[in-house]
Amino acid sequence: MTSHAAGEHRSVVIVGGGQAGLSVSAHLSKRGVDHVVFEKHRIGHAWRTQRWDAFCLVTPNWQCRLPDFPYQGDEPRGFMSRDEIVAYVEAFARHVGAPVREGVAVERIAPHARRGFEVATSEGVVTADAVVLAVSGYHKPKIPALAQTLDPAIVQIHSSEYSNPDQPPPGAVLVVGSGQSGCQIAEDLHLAGRKVHLAVGSAPRCPRVYRGRDAVEWLDELGQYDLPVERHPKKEGVRRQANHYLTGRDGGRDIDLRRFALEGMRLHGRLVGGEGGRIAFGPDLARNLDAADAVYNGICDLIDRHIAETGVSAPGGDRYAPVWRPAEGEGGGAIDLAQVGIASVVWATGFSADWSFVDLPFLDPEGYPAHRRGVTSVDGLYVVGLPWLHTWGSGRFVGVGADAAHLAEAIGDRLARNAPQPLAAAI
């Protein structure tokens, strides 16, 4: 790979060579728009390096609908493993002939006096009429400040660095966070026979199968993945909502934390503090479990109404009934890590965004890109691949293609409006 030619200019620069950036590239190519994709690492980097060994999708393979490249394997109702996801994204890049420059980091994006934007990379400077930020919002592992105060003997691992149950040292493992990653990592450890403590937050849960079909099939049929942000009851607030936890492991199943508790996993409330060899949890374990189950049963209600209204034939279905309940006060208070045998902590506490490389006023007061379906408040700057960019499907394989098509159209229209007019037309 060679450095950029001095004075290189592109109509569009796409930052990020994941499924979002590649989808925009595919649609720009259809329109004949000149562009380049800069990928700091390799295509599929996050899938390849920030997922554990047993990771798989929680949505069925048939929902993988990248532009003109749907899943074509023989298990449409299966769930692709980590390596299969990487292969799918790499194959998509080859299929669309995306002009990707791997190993090129974008270090700064700033206005250019005459040519739109100046994009400084690890291999030189390029100017562009438009820039698409396709780098999601998961840039830096988010770890609570109290992590720095824990006993140095406690091994600490962020979920993006977790590999398998053999990675943590001997002893019990505390997993902090009950979103998709936290619950699946806790299950991974639990199934391997490790003693697990789980700090349970407010993430909701979803049934895997209900009334004869995967719940994702029902929700897709109901149009839930196409529901735009402005029509959601929570409006913009839904973008801060945790995803429902369930798993595609071993063909797919519910994740039932109460059943794990019956089997020996120790559940705690939300993490509220800690120092040295002690960690404290809030008194909200029962409330958090009940809230997750309420969402689970609410999804069942939604499916029931759909079946009743459409008259579709489906077997009956039962509501979830708790198989275990914490005793009064259980899950709260402080524990001594050494006393209960905890030797390591897995922080499944998510990520924070870092847009500091973009020297443009495109963020809202909370530091989130101000945009309308990916079109930001800065003319010529776009974002794609964010959760709930436009719909529930936006941050997933099922919906990113539609967002990419919308942006490609917006970019094409803008380039056409700003194109120099022929001399004859100007007279």
Structure notes:
With 427 residues, this protein is an alpha/beta fold. It folds into two domains: 9-139 and 353-426, FAD/NAD(P)-binding domain (3-Layer(bba) Sandwich), CATH 3.50.50.60; 142-347, no CATH class. It has helices at residues 19-30, 45-49, 82-96, 180-191, 215-221, 257-262, 285-310, 400-418, 423-426; strands at 9-15, 35-39, 65-66, 69-70, 100-102, 106-112, 116-121, 124-133, 140-141, 155-158, 172-176, 196-199, 209-210, 213-214, 266-268, 271-275, 278-281, 333-336, 342-347, 351-352, 371-372, 375-376, 381-383. The strands form seven sheets. Strands 1, 2, 5, 6, 7, 8 and 23 form a seven-stranded mixed beta sheet that branches. Helix 1 links the parallel strand 1 (9-15) and strand 2 (35-39). Helix 1 packs parallel to helix 3 and helix 1 (19-30) packs across helix 8. The two termini are 45 Å apart. The mean pLDDT is 94.
How are the SSEs ordered, and which strands pair?
Layout: E1 9-15, H1 19-30, E2 35-39, H2 45-49, E3 65-66, E4 69-70, H3 82-96, E5 100-102, E6 106-112, E7 116-121, E8 124-133, E9 140-141, E10 155-158, E11 172-176, H4 180-191, E12 196-199, E13 209-210, E14 213-214, H5 215-221, H6 257-262, E15 266-268, E16 271-275, E17 278-281, H7 285-310, E18 333-336, E19 342-347, E20 351-352, E21 371-372, E22 375-376, E23 381-383, H8 400-418, H9 423-426
Parallel strand pairs: 1-2, 1-8, 2-5, 8-23, 10-19, 11-12, 11-19, 12-15
Antiparallel strand pairs: 3-4, 6-7, 7-8, 9-20, 13-14, 16-17, 17-18, 21-22
Helix pairs in contact: 1-3, 1-8
